[in-house]
Amino acid sequence: MKRIQLLDKEFVLSIPASDIKRAIWDMAMKINRDLHDKNPLMVCILNGSFMFSADLMKLIEFPCEISFVKLSSYHGMESTGEVKQLIGLNENVEGRTVVLLEDIVDTGVTIDNLVRQLKTQNPADVKVATLLFKPEACTRDIKLDYVGLEIPNDFIVGYGLDYDGYGRNLPDIYTVVK
Ligand code: IMP
Ligand code: MG
């Protein structure tokens, strides 16, 4: 298996780009079917979700907008449990279907906070589309409408996900070697 080094940690290939591509394709087909008449506002959650959002959006077949929010909760390999909103949403979401595009739901704190915050602005609906989900790590009771792949509770990098800023450019996903 292919191994890489990022800063002080070693990682091993765990999800090849071809598996990511297939998962995103399946998700896009479901979103096309479910939301084609909803004029949804797609919201990419920066930084981690930039690559997933770009690839998913290329497969969306109905007219829709995309916007960006920037949140931060991770430091190194740990979730801090505190979610900082570094860039907010400018669009008015009242009465609209909003689809949050997340790279990964880990403890669930980030997405739970964002969904709650959005709901105070009276959207018609808030849907969550996450490329990856760690069911064993999740501490919040959240509804995930679209999940690409369920993964074990290990720290990963690649395809937008980082270890202290590094690894986001990798087309495949790698798991830390313990
Ligand atoms: P949560 O709030 O614990 O669900 O974590 C959400 C955010 O933490 C994600 O959007 C990622 O940016 C980051 N994150 C969670 N797990 C990992 C991981 O294994 N590697 C890199 N970043 C992660
Ligand atoms: Mg993220």
TrEMBL record:
It catalyses: IMP + diphosphate = hypoxanthine + 5-phospho-alpha-D-ribose 1-diphosphate; GMP + diphosphate = guanine + 5-phospho-alpha-D-ribose 1-diphosphate. CDD domains: PRTases_typeI. It is an enzyme of class 2 (transferase). One of its GO terms (cellular component) is cytosol. Its cofactor is Mg(2+). Gene3D superfamilies: 3.40.50.2020. Residues 20-163 form the Phosphoribosyltransferase domain. Its main location: cytoplasm. Pfam families: Pribosyltran. The keyword Nuclease does not apply. Keywords: Cytoplasm, Glycosyltransferase, Magnesium, Metal-binding, Nucleotide-binding, Purine salvage, Transferase. One of its GO terms (molecular function) is magnesium ion binding. Its EC number is 2.4.2.8. It is found in: Cytoplasm. Pathway: Purine metabolism; IMP biosynthesis via salvage pathway; IMP from hypoxanthine: step 1/1. One of its GO terms (biological process) is purine ribonucleoside salvage. InterPro entries: HGPRT, Hxn_phspho_trans, PRTase-like, PRTase_dom. Belongs to the purine/pyrimidine phosphoribosyltransferase family. This is Hypoxanthine phosphoribosyltransferase.
